[in-house]
Each structure stands twice: as structure tokens, then as C-alpha cells.
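EI: anyone free to look at a 788-residue chain?
SC: sure, send it
EI:
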Amino acid sequence: MVKNRISSVINIGGLAIGMTVAMIIGLWIYDELSFNTWHKNYNSIALVQSNANYDGEIFTIDSHPMPLGTFLSNNYKSDFKYVVMSTAPEQHILSTGEKKLTGNGNFMQREAPDMLSLNVLYGTRNGLANPNSIMLSQSLAKKLFNNQDPVNKIIRFDNRFAVQVTCVYEDLPDNSDFKDVQYIVPFDFYLSSYDWARKKYTDWDNISIRIYTRINPNVTFEGASQHIKNVLAAHVSGNFEKRKPTVFLQPMSRWHLYSKFKNGVSVTSEQLQFIWLYGIIGIFVLLLACINFMNLSTARSEKRAKEVGIRKTLGSFRSHLINQFFSESLVIAFLAFVLSIILVQFCLPWFNGIAAKKISLPYTSILFWLSGIVFTTLTGLLAGVYPALYLSSFNPVKVLKGTSHAGRSAALPRKLLVTLQFTVSVVLIIGTLVIYRQIQFAKSRPLGYNGDNLLQVQINSSEFAGKLELFRSELKNTGVVADIAAAASPVTSVWSANNGFSWRGMLKAQQAEFFNTINVTHDYGKAVGWQFMEGRDFSRKMSIDSAGLVLNEAAAKLMGLQHATGETIKWKQINDVNFTVLGVVKNMVMESPFADAEPAIFFIYPRDGMNYMFIKLNPQANTSRAIAKIESVFKKITPQTPFAYSFANEDYNSKFASEERQGKLATIFAALAITISCLGLFGLVSFIAEQRTKEIGVRKVLGASVLNVWGLLSKEFMILVFIALLIASPLAYYFMHNWLQQYQYRIQISWWIFAVAGASAIFITLATVSYQGIKAALANPVKSLRTE
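SC: here you go
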């Protein structure tokens, strides 16, 4: 190792990088596979889901009518220990004294803390038995009460209700589906405090609640699902009854990696695909490092040939030599393992930031260290298996006579391994380019609205009731606001979808079609910058607009209305009121930027149900000063409500977080794979240049130029890179084509992506080879020939 410093650094450094990648990916995969296992009742908890037939296609839903939860609890006690109804996570205002915070939490039934096995720090796990209580997470309790014990203290909930703290529980881990539940409020409080909740309690046709269950011992999820599958169909009516809903249980163990359903059947989720993908990448990156070790060891075979010959002459068996070379390999592997631990500790904070995780090295885990030792041993054996078998096979008589020289066939395994290295690297380069191209393609997509300088403020307090016009007047007077509007959902999401619409020329098959339905105020179009294809916007001056609709392009196309303006549309859910189409706007990308726009209907009627306010800043105004003025207006009109806002463009860009994360990780893995490949290539070229020193000297004496010598050393590796490109291109196309199929709005894989990847691989190879090639070409031939 000391004698061959370059080779040692490449071997130990390359293996350490490969191990670091494999270890980080292994920790990430373990975090994904252990999702929700923190809950002690993990193996007996399930979410109630149902399949329903929509025009021949089965859709899976996870929200249900409230009476279903009550019915399951009362009639299936032999199957379920607990049946817990819960709202989806909601934001509400919590205040105590001068402190006012917006928190994210659920309304849940009293058995929820026990079912979720919450770790109680203060108070009692049975705290939800008191209808006017609240349970706080440790982090939220600290924000509200510092380090004091908050049990029995009073909190104002949405500036309307007084609730008593009955429990503080430990924050749930990052790999739990309930990680963002900062507080839990009793479901009874939800029913007693909100009129709409009481109406839903007996309404089998209103789908709004999630239902969790914990099955009894000796009960299976499949058996319980069979018992309850027809419950919903027996109680619902109307269109939902016609869809023949069947109820089933989705075990907690399948929530994270099998949450996706296609035509009623659970299919592999994108996250599980990533586990396989990154797992394969981790193995290949480690394999690249092992290939370097094999290549450099076999390349130096002639230098160790005499050693092998002398050892065999002195009585060493082949098994002794194999043990020797494996021992050397294991020493290098364990040195690399120690270095990789240091690298992982250094890289994890950075990796967590990219992967949105909170992974740490489990130093206290015996399993981790045993796994590390086994992993390192296997890596050492894998890296050393070919050199051990190859070097120990030399014939001692030929070696000591000097007649044992490696022929062309001896270099073949090295060529194959180098080709494999660059094949993997090129596949990763192409994959990275495709991912980034897909992200940029979606980012450059026309949005159908203008999100620049558009603030979104959630209306989450009763203080806002009846004050929209006051806000409009006061904000306009600041001089920094161009338009103000409100809607039932943010511009980057849709919270409501309905059917029951009818129109002229409607086909029978279209009766069950669902449309996104967005309740807006008159100025919504001005605030968000609607782009009209025909017709006009809502107008305050036209009283008939209260029964007017604006369609998006997808809705007009679905209805088959070439000129929709002036057409009449009826809506059964609002007593068959006749609505008039005022205009058609371009499709707004309100949901996934990678999916086609859904048919949407914007309407003024009814006048309530606004959840978001939109404030369009004056483009000439300084943003920070404008927000300060807007905040002062909010503090004046709604003093008890914290002023919280987001920019529409930032909310939209957050939709790319998952894909951008994939792109960053793919880039990192590709860069590491290329680095490891280049390390091996550098070492190999260094050795070949050293081995051919006299040949290069003779060539230079006979008139060879620096370019001739450089070409001599580079040609062999360039051929290998071209072979790698031919193998990698169809492989990368196959994998990335399949990856793109998950997106409706996607790119076509262009030829230039392969050209760029090929040019990059060629450039990297030439840059790596050139240093040693030019160095050898510039060497004084007199020195190399004088040694003869």
C-alpha cells in the first residue's frame, strides 16, 4: 500500500465513496420500509377505503359518510377493537395570552391516542373524553407555553372556543403518516361546534370523513373486509348507490408504499419504484468501486507475478495465496468502511436537506454494526475474488524463467469491467437529463393564470365573516394592491368536485361526469389573470351573474359546446337552477403540473364557502413594503388572527419538489459513479503508461509526436466508451420511457439527450486519460531507455 500510493488511494477512496453511497441509500431505504412501524399497533391498524364504479372504471376513495363509522362501531364489535373517525388535517388558530399560532391537526374520536400508541409526556392519554379538550404535540406545546407544564391550561381555538389542554404527547417521527398532527381535538367537539358537521352526522350521501380501525386479535384484514364490503351500498342512495361501492380495509403496512390504486387494485407506488431504483443504483455504484480494485489488481499482475512464483516455489499452496489476496482485499475494505462512516456522518445533513428526511447513523444499534461488518466483508470478498483467483493461478516455473507474460486475452476482463463502469455512468447521465428535461417541460407549461405577485391568504377564522368588502376597501386604499378576490380553494388546488350537471346535447354517458367546482367572487378573474377564449368575466354591475358560470376549456370540450357562451346549464345539487355560461377561459393548472387539466366550473352562487383570499400586488410596489402595509390592514380588521400568506408561484413551484428531489439525487449518484469510474480509469492509464515507458521512449526516438503518443494511450479507452454508449442508450431509453409513463403531460425522449450524454462521457474519458497520456508523451526518452 505504501509502495503503490496512487493505487492505494484510488482503491481505498473509491471503495469508501461506493460504501458511502450504498450506506446512505441503505439508511434511506430502511427509513422508507419502516414507515409507520413506530406505532405499536402497526400490524392491526387499517384505513377504511371503498371502490366505486364510475362509467366502467373503478375508483378508490378513502373518505366516507359519518354514519358508516358509527355503524361499523356498533355492529362489528367482534371484528374491531376500535373504530375511529377523523377529519383530514386542518389548520386552526390556537392562542393563549398574546401568543397566536396557526397549527395543523385533526378532530378524532377518543380512542385515537390509544390506537396510535401516542407517547404521553404530560397528562392522560384519555384526554379526548372531555369534549372541550385538546391534546398538544411536544413541539407545539413548547411554542405556546415555553417549558411550562400546560396540562389544564386554557387555549382559545379559532378565537371562538375555549378548550382545555389534557395531554402533551411526544412528536411523532418523520416516517409516520401522522407526523404533521400537531394537536388532536375531540370529534365530539367538532360535532357540537359546527353546524355542517352535525348535518353530516346522519347523512349517508355526504362523503367527508376518514375512518380508521384496529382489528381484534385473531381477526384478519381480509376477513373483516369480507364482512363489511356491502355496508355502504346498503345505505347510500342516488348516484353513489348506482356505483355499487364496496368497502375494504387498507392495512397501515400498505399505506406508504401501496397507496396507489388503479381500477380498484393496489399497484406499486412511485415511492416503491424509487426504493428499487436507488437500491439498484447503490449496488452499481459500489460495484463500480469494486471493479476499480479488480482492474488495478489484475493490471499490476506482472509486478506481483515473481512474488507469486517465489511463494509457490517455497511451498505455498494456491489456497494460501488466495487467502493472502483476500486478506489484503479485506484490509482495504475495512479501511474504506472506517472512512465511509466519517463521510456518511459528514454528508447526512446535506442529504437530509435534499431528500426531506431526518436520517441519522444508528451508532447504538448492534444490528447496524453487524450489518456494517457483514456488508464490508462481502464488499472485500467481491472486490478481491477475481484478483485472488487470477494472481494465484500463475505458473511458478514460467514466471521465474520470465516467459510468463500476459497476452491480449489477459486484458479482456479489464476491458469488460471498464465498459460496464461507463455503461452505468452513461445510463445515469441520460436518466438525469431526462428528469431535468421533464421538470423544465412542466415548469414552462402555460398556467392559464398569472401567479406573479399574487398572495394567497387562508380564511381560517370567524373574524373574517362578512368582512370581505371591508378588506377590499382598506387594501385598495393602501395603494399597493391592484385587486382582491376570494374563492373556496387556493389557485394551486381544487377542494370540491361535483356531478349532476345537464346541458343541451348531453349524452347519457355524460350524466355521471364530475367537474371541479370552484366558488369565487366577482373579481377572481381579474386577480388571477384569467385568459378568456370567448365571452366575458363576472361583473358586479350585472345582477344576473349570480346565476352565471365560467367554464374552463376542458369543461367546454367535455360538454361538446363549440360556442359555450350563452348556453344554459342545470345543476341538480342546487335545485335544478338554470345557470348561464358567461364565458370560457383557458385551462388553469390548479392541480398536478404533470397532469391534464380537469374540467372546471367557476360560479358565484352560493355566496358562502370562501376559504381563501387573493391579493394581487401592484407591480410597481416594493414587495416587502407592500406586505407590511397589507399586514397592518389585517391586524386592524382581524386582530385575533395571525397574518399568514403564501405566494401563488411559490405554492405552484412546491409541486415539483418530489421530481426535483429525484433530479438532484440522480445528479449526485451520476456524479459519484463518474468520479469512481474516472478514479479507476486514471489508475489504469497510469499503470499502462508506466508499463509502456520504454515503448513510448522508442516511439519518440523514431519520431512520434506528443499527439501520436496521446492517441496511442487514448484509443483503447475511447473504443470502450463507444461500446458502453451502444449498450447504455437502449437501456436508458427503456427505463426512462417507462418512468415517463406515470405523467400525462410529458416530454418525448429526444436524440440530443443521448448525444449530450455521449459527448459528456467522451469528454470525461479524454480529460481523465489525457493527463497521464500527455505526461508520458512529454517524458524524456533518454531516461526511459538508459535503464537498459
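EI: The mean pLDDT is 85.
SC: 👍
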